[in-house]
């Protein structure tokens, strides 16, 4: 399918910043084929009028657990370990595998409606999120959550992760990482097993690291090192690694992350809600770390809306560092797009020739975007996600003028209500 987006205001990369101007964007198959001139052989099967639209690269949610959309507003105002072990895990124990399919679809609806086209997911119920992505038309990187104490080549969770990878090897929108849960749930021997398997399979690593004060305190007490040092010493950083959170990282940790090319994902709403603090994003950037943005799961965020995270990211550090120049709107938008594409190893996150045709279009007649002023600043400080009207993923329109084309939203809400009643979450 060839799509021409005609005369749209578009946000294009310009060095570390962005250039905004009027452009024609030519989508051929699943890639951006050209800008402002028709590529050879182009024959538009659809022309989208972009006159009153702002077209951006689809946002990339670099860390989440979409199945946790079932737990929205179910585990609130709790200390982190009470939240995890006292509420979230018992709910997970009551879930059946297919519940995660509907939970993931619910999260994907929210992401599509707010302009996210790709997400990096840590799932617990193998095969369910991958199936949901295959059905929805979204792009995703999937990691089956792993934990263990020993080097066991027959580990069940790793076997499940590899089966998932092979079962969906024909879906170009799906990629895979291995996802050891956290330093406090994975022994060094187990992490070495994960590294060996990931190296053999050519996979990266996605892991929670240094999320809370309790984690860092316990790690020092039990192992006389920081969580970052613990993971490094187990060999994890020998492979492409995405480290979620990194709230409690000191200067030495930041240097280790930079030296090893580790990408860090900050999730401001989740970290604040659980009382874990603020990741030192300006200091991570200064150290040379590639920083990305994610929502985390709806059990700790309560939303999958990247525009909320974008605004928080651009505002929080201005306040904590007493300077409005701390994290600019350009910086924040880059973390939600290009930086994430780099971390995931995917050609996404920018409106450039050769990148995947993953785009979101915002309605410029929205009150929140009037007057528009600086469009990139508007994305960080004014937009809330409701402005998104059309979303294209892999060259396919998955939402057209606010109507989903690939997901039956009414069916998803019905199934979620049924599941939540059974697992005793929510009112209806």
Concise synopsis of the structure shown:
The chain has 428 residues and is of the alpha/beta class.
Supply the CATH class of the largest domain. Alpha Beta
For the terminal residues, how far apart are their CA atoms?
A: 41 Å
Helical residue percent band: 25-40%
Shape: globular
The averaged pLDDT comes out at: 96
Rg of Cα set: 21 Å
- Known CATH architecture of the largest domain: Alpha-Beta Barrel
Number of domains: 2
What name does the CATH topology of the largest domain carry?
TIM Barrel
CATH superfamily of the largest domain: Metal-dependent hydrolases
Task: Tell me the strand percentage band.
Answer: 15-25%
In terms of quaternary structure, the protein is single chain
Largest sheet: 9 strands, mixed
* Total of DSSP H or I helical runs spanning 4+ residues: 15
Structural class: alpha/beta
Walk me through what this model shows.
The protein is an alpha/beta fold and 428 residues long. It has 2 domains: 2-57 and 352-404, Urease, subunit C, domain 1; 59-344, Alpha-Beta Barrel (TIM Barrel), CATH 3.20.20.140. Helices cover 37% and strands 25% of the residues. It has 15 helices and 17 strands. It has helices at 80-94, 97-113, 128-136, 156-167, 188-201, 213-223, 227-233, 251-259, 268-273, 281-287, 306-321, 329-335, 338-344, 375-381, 409-423; strands spanning 2-14, 17-28, 31-35, 46-49, 53-57, 59-64, 116-123, 139-146, 174-180, 204-209, 241-245, 263-266, 290-293, 359-363, 388-393, 396-400, 403-404. Strands 1, 2, 3, 4, 5, 14, 15, 16 and 17 form a 9-stranded mixed beta sheet that branches. β1 (2-14) and β2 form a beta hairpin. The relative contact order is 0.17.
